[in-house]
Amino acid sequence: MQDMKKLAQLLKQVEDQLVVCMRCGMCQSVCPVFAETGRESDVARGKLALLDGLLQEMFKDSTGVQERLSRCLLCGSCAANCPSGVKVLDIFIKARAVITNYVGLSPLKKIIFRKMLAQPELFDQLMEWGSRLQGIFIKPVDELLGTSCARFVSPLGDRHFSSLAPQPFHRAVPFLDTPAGASGLKAGLFMGCVIDKVFPRIGHAVLRTLEHHGVGVFIPREVGCCGIPALSSGDTETYNKLVRHNLKGLASQDLDVLITACATCTSTIKKLWPTLAEELSPPELEQVKTLAGKTMDISQFLVEKLGVKASGSGEGGEKPLITYHDPCHLKKSLGIAAQPRTVLQASPAYRFKEMKEADKCCGCGGSFNLQHYDLSSAIGKHKRDNIADSGASVVATSCPACMLQISDMLSQAGDRVEVKHAIEVYAESLDKK
Amino acid sequence: MMKALIKEFEKVVGKDNVFQDETDRATYSYDAAVLEPVLPALVLRPTSSEALGRVVALCNEHGLPLTVRGAGTNLSGGTIPKTGGVVVLTNALNRIIEINEGDLYAVVEPGVVTAKFAAAVEAKGLFYPPDPGSQAVSTLGGNVAENAGGLRGLRYGVTRDYVMGLEFFDVNGDLVKAGARTVKCVTGYNLGGLLVGSEGTLGVFDKITLKLIPMPPAKKAMMAIFSDMNKASETVSAIIAHRIVPVTLEFMDNFTIRAVEDFSHAGLPVDAAALLLIEVDGHPVQVEEDAEKVEALCRQMGAMSVRVAQDAAERDKVWEARRAALSALSRVKPTTVLEDATVPRSKIPAMIRSIEDIAREYQLTIGTFGHAGDGNLHPTILTDKRNKDEWHRVESAIDAIFDKALSLGGTLSGEHGIGLAKSRYLEKETSRGTMLYSRRIKAALDPKGILNPGKIIGE
Ligand SMILES: Cc1cc2nc3c(=O)[nH]c(=O)nc-3n(C[C@H](O)[C@H](O)[C@H](O)COP(=O)(O)OP(=O)(O)OC[C@H]3O[C@@H](n4cnc5c(N)ncnc54)[C@H](O)[C@@H]3O)c2cc1C
Ligand code: SF4
Ligand code: SF4
Questions:
Q1: Is there a contact between A50 and B27 if contact means CB atoms under 8 Å apart?
Q2: Out of A25, A38, A67, whose CB is closest to B32?
Q3: B218, B270 Cβ separation under 8 angstroms
Q4: ipTM, 2 dp
Q5: Which CATH number, 3.40.50.300, 1.10.10.10, 3.30.465.10, 3.40.50.1820, labels domain B96-214?
Q6: Which pTM does this prediction carry?
Q7: How far is B75 from B369, CA to CA, in rounded Å?
């Protein structure tokens, strides 16, 4: 093992951000993990203090700190509520990379990220086998599925799974390039792993909607994962590869907007691609910035660019209730909360009802769910309770990873509540017109 | 620490509630004060009264320093443990045992979070007024141990005014009962009075009985802007001289106004010397009358403008500026030192002027806001503790602020407590005799000196 001085030096890059934390403890009031455990090492203040301790060489146990850092959903609730404006997520993501560099990536993750995720074609192929062999799948691939945004298949524990779709989106629509229609707009689509492989129906709903509004669509032949699973495990090497790969597919196009229906992809592209890009060349960095500037969540696009409005016809009557869960990566990270609600209220099929604590994290947190399933479920159970209490028969959201977690929680509780993406609800209303 | 003793603790609180890992212990080495962290030898989280009492007794038997920790938000180092000591967490003792609507009291465990309690009380149409800025996370045990104040102190008082009864463990782990559930109680010494504000140095709270009051049915907020500090201060005195006691009477200086405006673009006048935020409450008719009187007084005393909130949304806007004060200031520089000097109300202009002089003399950035109605100011020093030279000047400036507050007939701390941060100033404000008297009490009640050693009266 290398010496502590080296690690402290590497951590210097976050020092200026670390000192901003005044240890006021206000993050305790919003951290979903702390709410379950009451342990200071689970809240942002504790983790920041630990990083500070490593930096000051107060103690040596870097593996211990790495372990504590992993007990975090990267939900950003703490950052959104921090009086001092500490860039908690930036710090955590950078620190995970530094410490992982220092103690090394686990052999399993090495295989998963470097050998599979970083090679999108191989990844796709494996996932397709996965969908055929569900249930008898071997461990590395199971982990692979899990760490790439969430878990999708069944062998572990008593989870209730959303299984891999028989036909991933990219098989159905390997490439698309249609001209701008009535809207005069041309949109690139970034599908993301979970929609592609588990919920291709969301991808089809997006296409259906854009077609309806006369928006031209470009889907590149091969686009990989947005990189967040690798990044949140501290594997910057794979992350950089993926960003480059995606750039190749998208940057050359003349697009008005890049649309995603995955909150996690949206916030990764907008917030992380441009800031964690030390490896990129200046022209690549320019491209990344342009792309990030154009990236929009699908509901945001519908409301802000196409002028979709709440119809109001959803009020009253005997219509079934629909409620909405705010993905952290949309609301806390990008401040997008009103637009998806507007999109839902544009559908005449439902009456909208807020649930309690709609913006409280569902507890998924990508690989957090795999590593700390018990905690993740305990947090998810609160979400389930709030959904059930709302009396809604459909819960909509804007992130497929949240959909996985919420489906798991609802089905374990035996609730008969459907889980949908906001855009699915909207597309359905178009079909009925 | 001895293996056998750790085993014993495991038996008392359960294995999962004994934190031995250095990494876990490191997260209980600090609080919100800008002081050096100290690593405890062990951290324990009792989940029942019995376990809490046993833990205290065991620590005393083995001469282990014991520091109780609520949310760890105090600003004076009260939860920084002693080397080799034990930190005892109260956050697993977080039940509201009773809210009695007929007799207007509540009984709680010490780890209940202040805001959660206030909300539970409010749900029954009752009111628990003490509202420290940290209430979203602070614990009632911590509030009582610090005698915490808040924004409503002027009209409703501070935590002490709501403590009707206390059950606490003495250093031997014996349960002591003080006070009662009745408004009147003269049974025995007023032990509660001694324990409130004792910062964990005289006993460990197990149950707290708190007074509740009916929720005032109406309130009204306004913001008055002044071009001159003196005028703002005279307005404060005038309001009170007219026998109106607002719930809150908050103040911000020019530096704070500018920081808030930079941060939240709320439309505050950046050239104003001072700003007062005033809220009155009570019966609707009286509230209207008081609000009109206060508005007229502000104008009469020379306010540049007065804005009265007409509805809940406008009221929220008025308070947004105050809520943003600490956030806005703390973003100016990496380290934020929140001070707490308090002077008689009429001395506020003198104190503010001195703080400005001190800032100039020591070349520091200081923004001041606070509870003008209580004379409780929060001069907030914005600095970077990594800059050694500047940090020395910060320490000297703090000394100078205290000296000034004392010379104006004020006190070291209005609400943030003494802890480690201010214990060395205590004798200056009080007297040699006070120190000896306090130390004798401490020595009698805690002969081995294990209860939060070093806090308040020093070692
Ligand atoms: C952003 C911010 C705003 C603040 N605003 C205010 C304010 O407006 N007014 C104000 O007065 N304070 C304020 N504070 C200071 C602080 O929040 C209060 O002192 C609060 O009461 C501390 O509560 P806690 O649960 O965090 O206690 P801790 O910090 O955990 O402990 C404080 C002291 O209480 C002792 N203690 C805790 N529990 C027990 C127990 N069961 N038995 C015996 N002793 C115990 C501890 O040993 C320690 O000495 C603020 C702090 C911050 C960070
Ligand atoms: S709220 Fe922000 S400043 Fe306060 S302890 Fe948490 S991270 Fe630090
Ligand atoms: S990102 Fe979420 S889970 Fe992680 S520390 Fe912040 S609030 Fe807690």
A1: yes
A2: A25
A3: no
A4: 0.93
A5: 3.30.465.10
A6: 0.90
A7: 16
